[in-house]
Amino acid sequence: MTRILVTNDDGVFSPGIKALAEELSRIAEVIVVAPDREQSAAGHALTLDRPLRLRRLDEGWHAVDGTPTDCVALAVQSLLKDHPPDLIASGINFGLNLGDDVTYSGTVSATFEGVLLGVPSIAFSQEVTDGFSFPRSARMARELVERFLALPREPSRLWSVNFPAARFAGVRWTRLGRREYQQAVVEKTDPRGRQYFWIAGTPVWDHAQGTDSEAVSKGFVSVTPLHLDLTDYPNLRDLTSLEEPLSAAARAVAEEE
Question: In which region does residue 62 sit, left (phi positive, over 0), alpha (psi from -120 to 50) or beta (all else)?
Fold first, then answer.
């Protein structure tokens, strides 16, 4: 039977993970390993300075006092090592993860860890405005997972899915959009006169054609294939002319010792 590991960054008690796990349990064995508290914007953080605790909450449900990345690493390399999952599903996140935000998102970073460990993965995120529905998005997530699993197995396959709050107009394959935050750092003074800061602000999206943000703004489910190779290949080719002069400089520096 197909085995799916479900995790998130909103915490194991989030309604989004409950809806996703329940829906995916209709087509697979589901094991939930998720943070014991909210870990939003944790990114691809891995806990290395203290031991981690795994707590069994119920049959197939586990809480970890760590990040989403910790949860995936612990599940794949320890808890499920004798029967690894066929897929990792992360979410459904309370809020969108569009464009540049995928680098901050704990939800998406959990899937980064999945593919690094050789498990195909999907991240699911939900726009939260009037009319949004986790059950509706969970049903669509099941449809996407069934199509995903029907494809030839590719350990590096990774999708980031964003659900609009409105009733779905359809599905679009998209690329990552771009956004800027206005007033990204807010400076304040506390009652004792000490300065403090909030990292906050209002995102402004560039809804360029073909982007995830454009699709969601028009009521479409956005599916963005991602990969972890961050190499800038055109720039790599352009910089080859600098290789020999820099090598000469490196040799000269070494001779100065």
Answer: beta
